[in-house]
Fold this protein.
Amino acid sequence: MTNASTPPSPLVDISQLAEKLEQFANDRNWAQFHSPKNLAMALSGEVGELNEIFQWMTEDASKEAARNPETAQAVKDELADVLMYVVRLASVLGVDLNAAAQQKLKLNGEKYPVEKAWNTSKKYDQI
Protein backbone atom coordinates (compact mmCIF):
# COMPACT_ATOMS: atom_id res chain seq x y z
CA MET A 1 0.00 0.00 0.00
CA THR A 2 1.28 3.46 -0.82
CA ASN A 3 0.48 6.85 0.60
CA ALA A 4 0.58 10.27 -1.02
CA SER A 5 4.33 10.67 -0.48
CA THR A 6 5.32 7.16 -1.59
CA PRO A 7 5.40 6.56 -5.34
CA PRO A 8 3.58 3.44 -6.48
CA SER A 9 5.74 0.39 -7.04
CA PRO A 10 6.70 -0.08 -10.68
CA LEU A 11 4.43 -2.13 -12.88
CA VAL A 12 7.19 -2.56 -15.44
CA ASP A 13 10.90 -2.00 -15.35
CA ILE A 14 12.28 -1.72 -18.84
CA SER A 15 15.40 0.25 -17.95
CA GLN A 16 17.83 -2.58 -18.71
CA LEU A 17 16.10 -3.37 -21.99
CA ALA A 18 16.15 0.32 -22.96
CA GLU A 19 19.87 0.47 -22.21
CA LYS A 20 20.57 -2.69 -24.24
CA LEU A 21 18.56 -1.36 -27.19
CA GLU A 22 20.35 1.99 -27.07
CA GLN A 23 23.72 0.24 -26.99
CA PHE A 24 22.66 -2.04 -29.84
CA ALA A 25 21.69 1.00 -31.93
CA ASN A 26 24.83 2.94 -30.98
CA ASP A 27 27.10 -0.01 -31.79
CA ARG A 28 25.72 0.04 -35.33
CA ASN A 29 25.41 3.83 -35.69
CA TRP A 30 21.64 3.39 -36.04
CA ALA A 31 20.53 6.14 -33.65
CA GLN A 32 20.46 8.46 -36.67
CA PHE A 33 17.63 6.32 -38.08
CA HIS A 34 15.67 6.05 -34.84
CA SER A 35 13.45 9.08 -35.16
CA PRO A 36 10.07 8.75 -33.48
CA LYS A 37 8.43 8.62 -36.94
CA ASN A 38 10.68 5.79 -38.12
CA LEU A 39 10.31 3.83 -34.90
CA ALA A 40 6.51 4.20 -34.93
CA MET A 41 6.42 2.98 -38.52
CA ALA A 42 8.68 0.04 -37.69
CA LEU A 43 6.47 -0.77 -34.70
CA SER A 44 3.42 -0.75 -36.94
CA GLY A 45 5.16 -3.14 -39.31
CA GLU A 46 5.98 -5.56 -36.49
CA VAL A 47 2.39 -5.44 -35.22
CA GLY A 48 1.35 -6.27 -38.79
CA GLU A 49 3.68 -9.29 -38.77
CA LEU A 50 2.14 -10.42 -35.48
CA ASN A 51 -1.33 -9.99 -36.98
CA GLU A 52 -0.37 -12.15 -39.96
CA ILE A 53 0.23 -15.11 -37.65
CA PHE A 54 -3.35 -14.91 -36.37
CA GLN A 55 -5.06 -13.72 -39.54
CA TRP A 56 -6.89 -16.88 -40.58
CA MET A 57 -6.91 -18.77 -37.29
CA THR A 58 -10.05 -19.75 -35.47
CA GLU A 59 -10.59 -18.23 -32.03
CA ASP A 60 -9.57 -21.51 -30.41
CA ALA A 61 -6.42 -21.86 -32.52
CA SER A 62 -5.43 -18.28 -31.67
CA LYS A 63 -5.57 -19.11 -27.97
CA GLU A 64 -3.02 -21.87 -28.52
CA ALA A 65 -0.72 -19.98 -30.92
CA ALA A 66 2.06 -19.48 -28.37
CA ARG A 67 2.06 -23.20 -27.53
CA ASN A 68 1.54 -24.62 -31.01
CA PRO A 69 4.92 -25.81 -32.37
CA GLU A 70 4.01 -24.46 -35.82
CA THR A 71 3.46 -20.87 -34.59
CA ALA A 72 5.00 -20.55 -31.11
CA GLN A 73 8.42 -19.25 -32.15
CA ALA A 74 6.96 -16.74 -34.60
CA VAL A 75 4.57 -15.44 -31.92
CA LYS A 76 7.45 -15.04 -29.46
CA ASP A 77 9.67 -13.36 -32.04
CA GLU A 78 7.02 -10.86 -33.14
CA LEU A 79 5.96 -10.05 -29.57
CA ALA A 80 9.63 -9.42 -28.74
CA ASP A 81 9.97 -7.15 -31.79
CA VAL A 82 6.86 -5.20 -30.77
CA LEU A 83 8.12 -4.85 -27.20
CA MET A 84 11.55 -3.70 -28.31
CA TYR A 85 10.17 -1.07 -30.67
CA VAL A 86 7.77 0.21 -27.98
CA VAL A 87 10.63 0.48 -25.49
CA ARG A 88 12.98 2.12 -28.00
CA LEU A 89 10.32 4.61 -29.10
CA ALA A 90 9.52 5.51 -25.49
CA SER A 91 13.22 5.92 -24.76
CA VAL A 92 13.81 8.19 -27.77
CA LEU A 93 10.78 10.28 -26.80
CA GLY A 94 11.72 10.38 -23.11
CA VAL A 95 8.47 8.70 -22.04
CA ASP A 96 8.45 6.85 -18.72
CA LEU A 97 6.49 3.75 -19.70
CA ASN A 98 5.86 2.76 -16.11
CA ALA A 99 4.33 6.15 -15.26
CA ALA A 100 2.38 6.16 -18.53
CA ALA A 101 0.99 2.66 -17.87
CA GLN A 102 0.00 3.55 -14.31
CA GLN A 103 -1.71 6.74 -15.46
CA LYS A 104 -3.52 4.93 -18.28
CA LEU A 105 -4.71 2.14 -15.97
CA LYS A 106 -6.14 4.77 -13.62
CA LEU A 107 -7.86 6.56 -16.51
CA ASN A 108 -9.25 3.29 -17.88
CA GLY A 109 -10.59 2.44 -14.43
CA GLU A 110 -12.47 5.74 -14.43
CA LYS A 111 -13.75 5.24 -17.99
CA TYR A 112 -14.70 1.60 -17.40
CA PRO A 113 -16.01 1.25 -13.83
CA VAL A 114 -16.62 -2.39 -12.94
CA GLU A 115 -20.32 -1.89 -12.29
CA LYS A 116 -20.85 -0.51 -15.81
CA ALA A 117 -18.23 -2.43 -17.78
CA TRP A 118 -18.79 -5.90 -16.32
CA ASN A 119 -19.35 -8.49 -19.04
CA THR A 120 -19.60 -6.03 -21.93
CA SER A 121 -17.21 -5.12 -24.73
CA LYS A 122 -18.88 -1.79 -25.39
CA LYS A 123 -16.75 1.34 -25.54
CA TYR A 124 -16.82 3.62 -22.50
CA ASP A 125 -19.09 6.15 -24.18
CA GLN A 126 -21.66 3.41 -24.85
CA ILE A 127 -21.94 2.00 -21.32
Notes: DSSP finds six helices and no strands in the chain. The mean pLDDT is 94. Residues 35-113 form a domain with the Helix Hairpins fold (CATH 1.10.287.1080). The two ends are 31 Å apart (CA to CA).
